[in-house]
Amino acid sequence: MAYFPPSIDSPGGRGGEDLDAIISRFLAENSSTTSFVAAGIATRESKASFVRTLLEAVGSPKSQNVVVPALTALRILSREPNGCQDLFLRQGICTLLRQAQLLGGESSGAQPAPPAQYSETPVSVEALKCLCNVLLQHPPARGTVRECGSVEVIAKILKDRHTSLPADTQFLFLRLLFLITVDDQATVARLLEPDCDLPATVVKLLHRAPTFEAPPGALVSEIMKTVYNLMAIGNVREEAEQQKGPTVVTLANTEVELAWVSKFENILPEIIKLLLATNSPAPLVPPLSHIVHTLLNFPLAPYRAAFLKNGTDIVKRLCAILTDTLNAQDPRKGAAAAGTDLDQVLPPLLIVMSGIARQDTAARAVMRGLLMPDDIDRSKPLDQGSTVTARLIGFMTALVVPNVRESVCDLLYVLCDENAEKLVAYTGFGHAAGFLHSKGMMAPPSGGGGGGGGSSSSSEAFGSSFHPNTAGPMLDPITGEHDRRGSRSDWDGMTDEEKEEEAEKLLVLFDKLNKTGVIKVQMPQ
């Protein structure tokens, strides 16, 4: 079992061993330990005693030689909240903020220390790491950091010193801001005020001259996560205040005020450049997944020039990411690459693509040509095969990934000009039935105009045989495959083999409709 010191609340409890030696032994044996109390390595009381001793050493001017190792030990101990109550108290947090050089003005109105005084040291870096753990494990500590004026200090250090800060330190500052802004509208509002102006700082962090290396992936992830918080949480505050003004629709199909989203417009070109340039060994992993997620908060219409600056490159890039991701999945099993929750990471990409296609007809045409080409193989079930189209159609009825299923169906529906008849004509009614039922479009729309509308009659749209184009073999209306019966529709004119094929198709259709809840099949009594 890993070493853990006995209760050392007093010097006599150390058994003659000095604190430096105790910490050194602890670090040597516990550098990768994530649990102490739960693993039986320490009791809650012995761990709390060690935490108190370390905090005293960190805050004492007589213990400067052990401050860095003591902070490292606190960082390791804070991986598990049990036994860290002293570290989570205001006094403990202020001790860490002081060592990180982030202790600013209190909520009473005192001015924070000027960022020009910040000087990175091993002590400040280790204190930042410890603070990140504390804010992650104990969310109420985030309020203490805000009350101590540290949010403004962090924002101003990043604003004034970003060119001289190492990427690792920038990462730690952004991680703190990300954690502090979770569900905290007041902090978001403060970070957008002119003296902090975090969006402008983000642009500077992302925009590197050609002679400088691109920001590391971990830093990009933290920036994207923080920007997402600012845009999503801050917008809730704007709505609560009932602001009035022109509105726009984001790629996530959410209505927001143009004045609000314009606060972040200078970040958008940098995000798009990152999207086009970021190569990932695996699809939809950070930072790429966070880049895509952040795009959800932007509308295309007012920023068409930024989105389509390089023509439809962004559309092709998104389609390539989607293709790479789907090639690693099994639609029927919902299988995903190791460490990837497909039902969580894929929908944001699909929603972004749907938003772009919905708001720009040229982008929609390019996307449709890549994802829904006219010349798909209809000689076999449409959801079989390795093409991106086959995989998308397979996900239309994949029960194990409901979020992916809904997002895929919505994307294909948008690519069909939000016309139910076009969707059914392309995929067959069997694949589209669940989606149409959820949207209240089980019967073909009558009349013209509107999403899903059309002038075709019911028999034309859902007849016994049809084809999407004016030429070519007739298609089975249920499966979308070539109709092997040719033009015959009379049951009596079929061979026994053809009758068996039709019966099998009906069983498959009933099974799909039963699973999607459209109908409930019961055995006869």
TrEMBL record:
GO terms, biological process: G protein-coupled receptor signaling pathway
Presence of keyword Chaperone: yes
Keyword vocabulary terms for this entry: Chaperone, Cytoplasm, Guanine-nucleotide releasing factor
Protein name according to UniProt: Uncharacterized protein
Similarity comment text for this entry: Belongs to the synembryn family.
Keyword Chaperone: yes
Compositionally biased intervals (Low complexity): 456-465
Main localization category: cytoplasm
Compositional bias of kind Gly residues: 446-455
Amino acid composition bias (Basic and acidic residues), ranges on this chain: 479-491
GO CC entries: cell cortex
Region of interest: Disordered: 446-500
Source species: Geranomyces variabilis
GO molecular function, one term: guanyl-nucleotide exchange factor activity
Localization (cell): Cytoplasm, Cell cortex
